[in-house]
Amino acid sequence: MTGGSNKDWLTLGEKLLEQTSNWLRYYYFTVEARKGQEATIEQAKQSCMEIERRLESHPELATLDTDHDLLNIKANNAAFWVDTPEQCLPIYRAIMDSGQWPLVRRRFFNFSCFEISPQLDRVTEYNYSTFLNGLPDPRPGEEQYSSELDDSGHATD
Could you tell me the residue ranges of all domains in the chain? Predict the structure, then answer.
Protein backbone atom coordinates (compact mmCIF):
# COMPACT_ATOMS: atom_id res chain seq x y z
CA MET A 1 0.00 0.00 0.00
CA THR A 2 1.52 3.27 -1.04
CA GLY A 3 0.46 6.88 -0.57
CA GLY A 4 -1.39 7.80 2.62
CA SER A 5 -1.14 5.89 5.85
CA ASN A 6 -1.80 2.18 6.11
CA LYS A 7 -4.73 2.96 8.43
CA ASP A 8 -6.26 5.20 5.71
CA TRP A 9 -5.95 2.39 3.17
CA LEU A 10 -7.48 -0.10 5.57
CA THR A 11 -10.39 2.24 6.28
CA LEU A 12 -10.93 2.83 2.56
CA GLY A 13 -10.84 -0.91 1.85
CA GLU A 14 -13.28 -1.66 4.64
CA LYS A 15 -15.69 1.03 3.43
CA LEU A 16 -15.48 -0.31 -0.13
CA LEU A 17 -16.20 -3.82 1.12
CA GLU A 18 -19.11 -2.68 3.25
CA GLN A 19 -20.73 -0.55 0.54
CA THR A 20 -20.21 -3.08 -2.24
CA SER A 21 -21.58 -5.80 0.03
CA ASN A 22 -24.68 -3.73 0.71
CA TRP A 23 -25.12 -3.32 -3.04
CA LEU A 24 -24.74 -7.09 -3.53
CA ARG A 25 -27.17 -7.74 -0.70
CA TYR A 26 -29.81 -5.74 -2.57
CA TYR A 27 -29.42 -7.96 -5.64
CA TYR A 28 -29.37 -11.09 -3.50
CA PHE A 29 -32.79 -10.29 -2.06
CA THR A 30 -34.23 -8.64 -5.18
CA VAL A 31 -34.05 -11.34 -7.82
CA GLU A 32 -36.09 -9.41 -10.37
CA ALA A 33 -33.51 -6.58 -10.37
CA ARG A 34 -30.65 -8.89 -11.43
CA LYS A 35 -31.66 -9.05 -15.09
CA GLY A 36 -29.05 -7.25 -17.16
CA GLN A 37 -26.77 -6.80 -14.13
CA GLU A 38 -25.23 -10.27 -14.06
CA ALA A 39 -21.76 -9.20 -15.25
CA THR A 40 -21.65 -6.23 -12.87
CA ILE A 41 -22.78 -8.40 -9.96
CA GLU A 42 -20.06 -10.95 -10.74
CA GLN A 43 -17.45 -8.22 -11.01
CA ALA A 44 -18.54 -6.78 -7.64
CA LYS A 45 -18.27 -10.23 -6.02
CA GLN A 46 -14.77 -10.72 -7.41
CA SER A 47 -13.77 -7.23 -6.28
CA CYS A 48 -14.93 -7.94 -2.73
CA MET A 49 -12.94 -11.16 -2.61
CA GLU A 50 -9.83 -9.43 -3.96
CA ILE A 51 -10.09 -6.44 -1.59
CA GLU A 52 -10.61 -8.76 1.39
CA ARG A 53 -7.64 -10.93 0.34
CA ARG A 54 -5.33 -7.92 0.03
CA LEU A 55 -6.42 -6.40 3.32
CA GLU A 56 -6.24 -9.73 5.14
CA SER A 57 -2.71 -10.38 3.90
CA HIS A 58 -1.37 -6.98 4.98
CA PRO A 59 1.37 -7.54 7.58
CA GLU A 60 0.11 -4.73 9.83
CA LEU A 61 -3.57 -5.77 9.86
CA ALA A 62 -3.57 -6.93 13.49
CA THR A 63 -2.03 -3.65 14.60
CA LEU A 64 -4.26 -1.44 12.46
CA ASP A 65 -7.60 -3.22 12.83
CA THR A 66 -7.84 -3.52 16.60
CA ASP A 67 -11.66 -3.44 16.51
CA HIS A 68 -11.73 -6.39 14.08
CA ASP A 69 -13.77 -4.41 11.57
CA LEU A 70 -12.54 -6.46 8.62
CA LEU A 71 -13.43 -9.69 10.40
CA ASN A 72 -16.94 -8.40 11.15
CA ILE A 73 -17.42 -7.21 7.57
CA LYS A 74 -16.33 -10.62 6.31
CA ALA A 75 -18.58 -12.52 8.74
CA ASN A 76 -21.58 -10.33 7.90
CA ASN A 77 -21.14 -10.13 4.15
CA ALA A 78 -19.03 -12.96 2.72
CA ALA A 79 -22.18 -14.87 1.80
CA PHE A 80 -22.95 -12.15 -0.76
CA TRP A 81 -19.49 -12.46 -2.38
CA VAL A 82 -20.12 -16.02 -3.62
CA ASP A 83 -22.77 -17.77 -5.68
CA THR A 84 -23.75 -20.56 -3.30
CA PRO A 85 -23.71 -21.14 0.48
CA GLU A 86 -21.26 -24.00 -0.03
CA GLN A 87 -18.76 -21.59 -1.59
CA CYS A 88 -18.85 -19.51 1.59
CA LEU A 89 -18.05 -22.39 3.94
CA PRO A 90 -14.25 -22.16 3.41
CA ILE A 91 -14.41 -18.50 4.42
CA TYR A 92 -16.24 -19.33 7.64
CA ARG A 93 -13.93 -22.30 8.29
CA ALA A 94 -10.92 -20.00 7.92
CA ILE A 95 -12.43 -17.69 10.55
CA MET A 96 -12.86 -20.68 12.87
CA ASP A 97 -9.34 -21.99 12.16
CA SER A 98 -7.85 -18.56 12.88
CA GLY A 99 -9.28 -18.64 16.41
CA GLN A 100 -11.41 -15.55 15.76
CA TRP A 101 -14.77 -17.33 15.77
CA PRO A 102 -15.72 -16.12 19.27
CA LEU A 103 -15.51 -12.53 18.00
CA VAL A 104 -18.21 -13.05 15.35
CA ARG A 105 -20.22 -16.10 16.40
CA ARG A 106 -23.25 -14.05 17.42
CA ARG A 107 -23.70 -13.04 13.78
CA PHE A 108 -24.75 -16.63 13.07
CA PHE A 109 -27.32 -16.98 15.84
CA ASN A 110 -30.92 -17.48 14.90
CA PHE A 111 -32.58 -14.33 16.19
CA SER A 112 -35.52 -16.29 17.58
CA CYS A 113 -33.07 -17.98 19.95
CA PHE A 114 -30.63 -16.02 22.03
CA GLU A 115 -28.17 -16.33 24.84
CA ILE A 116 -27.79 -14.03 27.80
CA SER A 117 -25.92 -10.92 26.77
CA PRO A 118 -25.15 -7.69 28.60
CA GLN A 119 -28.28 -6.12 27.08
CA LEU A 120 -30.46 -8.97 28.35
CA ASP A 121 -28.92 -9.38 31.81
CA ARG A 122 -31.38 -6.92 33.30
CA VAL A 123 -34.57 -8.79 32.51
CA THR A 124 -37.20 -7.54 34.92
CA GLU A 125 -39.22 -9.90 37.08
CA TYR A 126 -42.34 -8.77 35.25
CA ASN A 127 -40.85 -9.57 31.84
CA TYR A 128 -39.60 -12.95 33.05
CA SER A 129 -42.94 -13.93 34.56
CA THR A 130 -44.81 -12.66 31.51
CA PHE A 131 -42.47 -14.66 29.27
CA LEU A 132 -42.98 -17.85 31.28
CA ASN A 133 -46.75 -17.40 31.46
CA GLY A 134 -46.85 -17.14 27.68
CA LEU A 135 -45.11 -20.49 27.15
CA PRO A 136 -47.22 -23.56 26.43
CA ASP A 137 -47.32 -26.03 29.31
CA PRO A 138 -44.64 -28.66 28.62
CA ARG A 139 -46.17 -30.97 31.26
CA PRO A 140 -49.90 -31.41 30.62
CA GLY A 141 -51.87 -32.18 33.76
CA GLU A 142 -49.48 -30.28 36.02
CA GLU A 143 -49.48 -26.65 37.05
CA GLN A 144 -47.81 -24.12 34.79
CA TYR A 145 -44.07 -23.79 35.38
CA SER A 146 -44.53 -20.14 36.23
CA SER A 147 -46.69 -21.12 39.21
CA GLU A 148 -43.58 -22.78 40.68
CA LEU A 149 -41.93 -19.37 40.95
CA ASP A 150 -42.14 -17.16 44.00
CA ASP A 151 -43.01 -13.48 43.66
CA SER A 152 -39.41 -12.58 42.82
CA GLY A 153 -39.28 -15.03 39.89
CA HIS A 154 -37.11 -17.65 41.64
CA ALA A 155 -37.93 -21.35 41.69
CA THR A 156 -39.65 -22.68 44.79
CA ASP A 157 -39.06 -26.09 46.35
Answer: 6-108, 123-157
